[in-house]
Backbone:
């Protein structure tokens, strides 16, 4: 298979030195990449900033902001068998980023935000036989909210987790495909990546 995997956390710049981001380490996306390469698959990895080093065998497309990640997904989507959206993509970006550094102001700056493009929803609408995998990180009503996301974004497989997974080497996840019940899995992210990959392989082969 040719897998398109996103990983890391996007950065949305306010000015040349400040940005909005999240605590994603990119660990799960890189674990999925390693698992896919070991299984003999080809991987295009769209990688937002992370301190971790990607596998050399992957074709890495570095990006920073959500808009760049969206452009990269669209550019490579037609050539993949499955898209795994493991990246933590910012939901909002500054509406008017500054070209020069903001100076400290006693009143504090007012920061106007706008929504970023919904990459997963776009992929769900345009998959045309490709498998699309989404991740849902929730801090309450985890399975209910994740299932809403699965249906709304038209994804084939949803992986639900909680904030405790951020940056951790071990995690607890729930996975579901259409027509199946939730499956709960725990272990290292490498182990979980292998379990997710096996499900992706079955969906592609179906």
Residues:
């Amino acid at each position: 298979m040719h897998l398109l995997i996103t990983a890391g956390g996007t950065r949305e710049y306010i000015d040349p030195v400040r940005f909005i981001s999240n605590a994603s380490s990119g660990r799960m996306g890189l674990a999925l990449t390693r698992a896919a390469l070991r299984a003999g698959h080809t991987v295009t990895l769209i990688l937002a900033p992370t301190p971790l080093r990607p596998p050399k065998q992957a074709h890495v497309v570095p990006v920073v902001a959500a808009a760049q990640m969206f452009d990269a997904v669209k550019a490579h989507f037609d050539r993949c068998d499955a898209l795994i959206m493991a990246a933590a993509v910012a939901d909002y970006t500054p509406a008017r980023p500054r070209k020069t550094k903001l100076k400290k102001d006693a009143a504090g700056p007012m920061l106007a935000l706008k929504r970023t493009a919904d990459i997963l929803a776009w992929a769900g609408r345009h998959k045309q036989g490709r498998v699309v995998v989404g991740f849902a990180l929730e801090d309450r009503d985890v399975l209910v909210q994740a299932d809403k996301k699965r249906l709304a974004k038209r994804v084939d497989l949803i992986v639900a987790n909680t904030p405790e997974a951020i940056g951790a080497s071990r995690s607890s996840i729930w996975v579901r495909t259409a027509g199946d019940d939730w499956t709960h899995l725990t272990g290292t992210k490498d182990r979980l990546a292998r379990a997710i990959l096996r499900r992706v392989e079955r969906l592609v082969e179906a």
